[in-house]
Amino acid sequence: MEKAYRYRFYPTTEQEQILRRTIGCVRLVFNRALAARTEAWYERQERVDYVQTSSMLTQWKKLEDLQFLNEVSCVPLQQGLRHLQTAFTNFFAGRARYPNFKNKRSGGSAEFTKSAFRWKDGQVYLAKCSEPLPIKWSRQLPRGCEPSTITVRLEPSGRWFVSLRIDDPTDETMQRVESAVGLDVGVSSLITLSTGEKIANPKAFDKYYQKLRKAQKSLSRKQKSSRNRDKARLKVARLQAKISDSRKDHLHKLTTRLIRENQTIVVEDLAVKNMVKNPKLARAISDAAWGELVRQLDYKALWYGRTVVKIDRWFPSSKRCGNCGHVVDKLPLSIREWDCPNCGTHHDRDVNAAQNILAVGHTVTVCGANIRPDRHKSKGQLRKTRKGRKQKPKS
User: Are residues 189 and 161 in the same domain?
Assistant: First the structure.
């Protein structure tokens, strides 16, 4: 199984100069190739592929004002063009938006394949660098594994990270357990388990909100392209990095615990991108990071031999009585507890939803039942067009 191990490192002055120059050249080549492909399509309706952009790169290196491209390794430049090709492939397949130009203030990255680095005595030697990267080895690579690809990343906060991509043959399947759990995600409680336990939402953004607000106001007052503005931007980036690290740390600990304790985990297949369009809940939903929670559960379940079941997002888990199955017509978010009008059972909204999600997850796992309600359309029904005219019945 392919994995990536991420470490922080502290480059020397010489290494930082070389890496910053390399990342800048990667960004320049990416943006020039993107501009060339966009111009070719809109002006001549021609599609430019990776091979053509690679030939363009060869010509760019011969230009007098771009001679500095020859001072860095050519491998990260070619990898940047391959990433652009992948971005266009995903765009034409409908999986992503049109590629954007890279911004200097957003940091950047450079990818090195085996021809551009050496792995010797557990140390990484990059091309154009005489000394190994001073990596802070927070954990060791699996025994006998060597990296096939190395990616160096500079964050907006100024921190340097290196990702080592390896092919890990280790079997990490955990011993099978009989427990299963349903998860209902929320804002006040990050998740509610079908066992009745509620995991509080740490609300990492709210913790640093006042400091971040003050730093962003200070940044907006600084003159553009000034040294003071760079300092203020760095301060904002470091606060945002703190928020992100705090959120991810909590999610990693939580998802690892869920994977260890349960064989099957049932969650709702929520459309988070659509939910954050609500301006009243967008910040709270984004801070909860439901998408990241499910993503971590997915790949950790694959690693450790667990099962994650996703049920349909339209299943009325909150409005359905877990005792008799009665579904109430309306249940506003302000109502956290309710009594079933059919059997009189008292429900905690979140606990009832988690238990219903678990029950439906067992159904989907065992017989593959479809929990989305069937929507029958009567034949011959008159449909109105946008102009209000009636059409003939569909045959």
Answer: no
